[in-house]
Amino acid sequence: MDKDTKRDLHSLPKTLAELVGKHIVAAGLLVDEDPERAYKHAAYARRKASRLPTVREASGIAAYTVGKWQEALSDLRAARRMSGRDTFLAIMADCERGLGRPERALEITNDPAAKDLDADERIELRIVAAGARRDMGDVKAALAELQVPELKERRARPYVARLFYAYADVLEELGRKEDAREYFARASSVDREGVTDADERLAAIEGVELVDSDVEDGVVWTDVEEEADEAAAEAEATASRERRDDKGRDHRRDDRRDDRRGGREDRG
């Protein structure tokens, strides 16, 4: 449990604070593996302590993970109003996208408070802004939203992987295949936590197939065209052997016929 939640819970009677705290912790633990259960825990905590900003944050995030956009937006707006924190602007903007309101999403992504966010939160805002531009059919503007200094970043951080991936995705939609390949490759190289499917997207562009393996990196790249060539060569070799075998059998049959014919002539 983070310090902000602990501080908020201190304002509740001890028994209630312990109960709400358990549900908040459960929601946090389950949000990735079982979003529906996480949502139920967070919703229970919200019913018991809706005036605590951290509880509203937890409830908003849980609602977001199960696609309850309006509920998530309401809770996160309340949490922001009560706490003064701008941490979840990207999620709020994405909720507007989920509600089919990309223009409102862009208003949130351009909130003046965004300049004071941490790098990962600012990048998430730009990714959501790019998504909103694509929702509106302006792919070039989506690319511009992602052209930030962090595109030159080389460190393996989840938000960098997501930025590279989003940039590559837009490049591919624009038909810039080689540039997309480069940024999918960059995303793959820094995505140590598996937050994207950059490997699969890169494989699709390069015409290779990913297969499971027990090698250390867990992935083997197999050239699909080479596999096809090898299969064709093997088929031709098999056919050639079969033709040779057929010819050999024909020669042996001819020899046996000659032997039988020669034997009849001797007897005659």
TrEMBL record:
Name of this chain's protein: Tetratricopeptide repeat protein
InterPro entries, sorted: TPR-like_helical_dom_sf (IPR011990)
Originating organism: Nocardiopsis eucommiae
Composition bias type Basic and acidic residues, residue spans: 239-268
Positions of the UniProt region annotated as Disordered: 222-268
Biased composition regions of type Acidic residues, renumbered to the chain: 222-233
Lineage: Bacteria, Bacillati, Actinomycetota, Actinomycetes, Streptosporangiales
